Amino acid sequence: MVIYKKVADIFNSGIIAQENGQIVIQDQSQFNDIMIDDLATTIAKSDDPNMKKICYWIAHQAAISRGVVSSSIQGLYSAMGQKKIGGFTVPAINIRTLTYDVARAVFRCVKKINAGAFIFEIATSEIAYTQQCPMEYTSAILLAALKENYRGPIFILGDHFQVKVNKYLKNSETEIKLLRTLIDDAIDAGFYNIDIDASTLVDLSEENVDIQQELNCEVSALFTKHIRSVQPEGIEISIGAEIGEVGERNSTSSDLKAFMERYMVSTSSLKGLSKMSIQTGTSHGGVVLPDGSIAKVKIDFDTLRRLSEICRSNYALAGCVQHGASTLPNEAFHTFPQVGCAEIHLATQFQNIIYEHMPISLKGRIYDWLKENCANERKPGQTDDQFIYKTRKKALGPFKKEIFSLPQDLKDKISTVLEGEFDFMFSQLQISDTREIVDKYTDVVAVKHNKEHFLKDKE
Fold this sequence. Notes:
50% of the residues lie in helices and 12% in strands. By secondary structure, it is an alpha/beta fold. The protein has 3 domains: 7-66, no CATH class; 72-356 and 406-451, TIM Barrel, CATH 3.20.20; 360-395, no CATH class. α12 links the parallel β9 (275-278) and β10. It is globular, with a radius of gyration of 22 Å.
């Protein structure tokens, strides 16, 4: 695979051409066999912002021309909320590194089982530390779909678009403006599913649950109104909210009702939420023991069942969302569809598999980098294993090019292992044969942008 250095290298290849501001694929075989890989390589490794933007444009145009369309999952979740469909839990797959290769493994899996109910997601913090802007993330996934000959709607989610409580309390206008800009960039890139996370503003020091959720509800409603004002014509973006910060105390039905009753009044003239994130006993990445292993977690499935049913029966939401589930034992995953969990977020285990297969020399350089650059994140009493495990995600951006440059046979091996992991997860979550219902309930609207849209500088 090569990195494109000049635009002419792409358009003089005889593989694609520009006609009236549109991309025309002249040699489909060569595009599939060669150019898709080269576009993905340029996106991941090029230092030239203009070349990356050209690749974004080509990826989006090629995807739309072949029926690969970034879409909103709103229609599917509305059907779940109305109890027309159910019995499965939608996996939201978080990809922090090797995005193109990992996404290819996902598409291979879903094609084998005729699945359509799956999501790719990335959180605000991950966009920063993995050095994957929304447009880069979307483009890598679209190229992966093209490479694996996948067709149909693709759901890309901006996860934990989170309000930082200290920054909000210091200057709420500045914090809100930052989140609005992030939302605008994400929608611009084809993120038509966004999870607002103002759960950081829940004040558990208050005795009254309505007051506890007041600021969370107010800010969530504010961002809902903004999303609805900027969403593309014909697309109803799926919006999620959160009533309990992951890693804190478990959510209650009182929390849910207090939030929803106030939220519905604040957004009465608009389409509201499609789902609700709650806390059930997990934490992001799991709890690391001194030897680097992960402590066993006891998830509160009763809470997940009860609140998911309230979501559907009282508010026509799809149900509840489970975060921090990657490190749960395998025997737990079949339970999520049984308790009516709408969506489950999976991340850390996939990252762990990639680290397990990295060359020792590369891991050594990464761990040395962490000790030097993340020393301020080390907590008193942490062992080296605990520190490395909790911080190693922060190295994925600075080492992105090196990780992408791993030998292809090693990347193929990693992809094969991940594919096996996805096979298991998807079977446990019961998403086999969901393609037809996704097609039935999803409004596929191709948002077409011209070349200048991709080349513009962000303000």
